[in-house]
Write a structure and sequence with these properties.
Elements: H1 4-14, E1 16-21, H2 25-42, H3 56-62, H4 65-75, E2 79-89, E3 97-100, E4 113-119, E5 130-132, E6 145-146, E7 158-159, E8 169-170, E9 177-182, E10 187-189, E11 198-207, E12 219-224, E13 233-234, H5 244-261
Helix pairs in contact: 1-4
Length: 265
């Protein structure tokens, strides 16, 4: 990995940093194959939350020490793993993500948060790599408009209008590389126009003092340091794949997440 201080400085300046090498390309492909084997058994895992509670592979990636070292630089030594989600764009898919800020509807008390997007396949302009607006994290929360579009991956289709595309930086990644971005950083992605799937793992981390303001049902797990606050219910990471009880619990957690992200209050 590049020097942590340099990566952190770049993150603080722009609100994001990439590419950060987390695992080898070969390891990334193995993790992608594990995902696809699971999909053969239970169907699509695109945008299913808390996926680390039913599969060991995403939990292993989410607790990778190289990731946590940089997350620690950003949010401090005490780190919660809040969510892990596969984000998949099928070949020739019209699915896209509108310009938005992650923290708008999540209901957190503080913005001590970082999103990691780990590529399990090649991620480029043709297949819909993320675009980010440098230094937009310094603006704070921007006005989002609810736009109904079945092709928008976001639950509410929340969209910041009037974004100058000329300012955007395309975050292309090789398998095994990741981008890190702040929750107020404006970002979006275009449809996948390639003949191949675009597969990434999205991981959300919080400082332990962060609270969920909307309800008391949210959950997380401390993955580094100590949680002295206990603001969240405790997630149980998978110890074996696709356990029946874990699947039922994950379905419940997924519904809670959709209700949380789908409410502006």
């Amino acid at each position: 990995m590049k020097d942590l201080n340099q990566l952190h400085k770049k993150y603080e300046k722009d609100g994001f940093v990439f590419p950060v090498q987390v695992v080898t390309s070969e390891e990334a492909i193995i993790h992608k194959e594990i995902l696809e084997d699971a999909e053969k058994k239970i169907g699509s895992l695109h945008y299913k939350t808390k996926i680390h509670t039913i599969l060991t592979s995403p939990y292993k990636l989410a607790t990778n020490s190289l990731i946590l070292d940089l997350v620690e630089k950003i949010v401090g030594p005490n780190i919660l793993l809040h969510n892990v989600t596969y984000i998949i764009k099928e070949a020739k898919s019209r699915s896209y993500v509108s310009w938005h800020q992650d923290l708008t509807y999540w209901g957190f008390s503080h913005d001590d948060q970082v999103s990691v997007w780990l590529a399990l396949s090649s991620v480029n302009k043709q297949n819909g790599a993320m675009k980010m607006i440098p230094r937009s994290h310094r603006i704070g929360m921007m006005k989002h408009k609810i736009v109904e579009d079945e092709n928008n991956v976001l639950f509410q289709g929340q969209t910041v209008e009037g974004v100058n595309e000329n300012d955007a930086v395309l975050c292309e990644l090789a398998p095994g590389q990741a981008s890190f971005h702040h929750g107020w950083t404006l970002h979006a992605s275009s449809p996948n126009r390639s003949p191949n799937r675009r597969v990434g793992l999205n991981i959300q981390y919080l400082a332990t003092h962060v609270k969920q303001k909307k309800h008391n049902l949210d959950s997380a797990i401390c993955v580094r340091g100590e949680d002295k606050y206990n603001n969240f219910n405790l997630d149980k990471p998978a110890t074996l794949d696709l356990d029946t009880n874990a699947l039922a619990k994950q379905h419940h957690l997924n519904e809670i997440y959709k209700e949380t992200a789908g409410s502006s209050n």
